[in-house]
Design brief:
With 252 residues, the protein is mainly α. It has 4 helices and no strands.
Length: 252
């Protein structure tokens, strides 16, 4: 009997728990359904916007401004070739100015080189003239000495020069004197020949140096004259460009 009552009690408790679980499950399903229904979006038809007269006027003005902008862009596109021509002229003038400056710089550098060469040529001419004066002075001294030797070589002068010596062999003394004078004359003539050759060489060098000085001087004078003419031409062209440039007309 006790076993049967226990079984009935257990069955009753199990049935109660099962019924309670079913009730809880059904309540949870109801809550889920209500949540799904509340979260579903509602489809509504939007209101049709009716523009006001002010909006229409603004739209018309914007269309007018767009049309004006397009016309201005078209006119600017039409004027682009003229602006390109002006730009090309400006760039061409700048290139010409740079070319002139470069030419002037090269000319000035060449002038500096020519001035240095001219200074060296003038110094060389001065040195050669000093050397020529020395050669001429030595040559004059040797020529005077040679005249004295030629005069002393005369027989009467040799005899007069040896007459004061007391000797028993005056012929040998005169012969010795004559040989000395002849050797001196030979040396003097050789020195004169060398001086004559030096004089000729120095004179030729002076002529070459003077010709170089004259050539460089003429070149520098021509360069200076060309620079003056170029400056005048540039000033005249600049004045003509200023006078030919159109004056801007005031906009109304």
């Amino acid at each position: 009997m006790r076993d049967n009552s226990v079984r009935k009690l257990v069955m009753t408790v199990f049935a109660v728990l099962l019924i309670g679980g079913l009730l809880v499950d059904s309540a949870a399903q109801k809550r889920r359904r209500t949540r799904r229904r509340s979260s579903a979006p509602r489809i509504t038809n939007p209101e049709i916007y009716q523009p006001s007269p002010v909006d229409n006027s603004n739209a018309n003005s914007s269309e007018t401004s767009n049309a004006n902008g397009n016309s201005n862009s078209n006119s600017s596109q039409i004027e682009d070739p003229e602006s390109m021509k002006r730009t090309i002229r400006v760039l061409s003038n700048q290139v010409d100015k740079l070319t002139d400056k470069l030419n002037d710089l090269q000319a000035s550098q060449q002038s500096m080189v020519d001035l240095e060469r001219l200074s060296r040529a003038e110094q060389r001419s001065a040195q050669l003239r000093t050397e020529l004066r020395d050669v001429t002075s030595k040559k004059a001294e040797l020529e005077a000495h040679l005249e004295d030797v030629e005069f002393a070589l005369k027989p009467e002068n040799i005899e007069r020069a040896t007459a004061g010596y007391g000797t028993t062999r005056p012929e040998e003394l005169r012969e010795q004197r004559r040989r000395q004078l002849e050797n001196d004359r030979t040396r003097t003539r050789q020195q004169l020949d060398q001086l004559n050759a030096s004089e000729t060489r120095v004179q030729q060098a002076i002529a070459t140096s003077d010709a170089e000085v004259d050539r460089l001087q003429k070149k520098l004078d021509a360069s200076d004259q060309a620079a003056i003419e170029n400056a005048k031409t540039n000033s005249q062209s600049g004045a003509s460009q200023v006078s030919a440039s159109p004056t801007p007309t005031p906009s109304p």
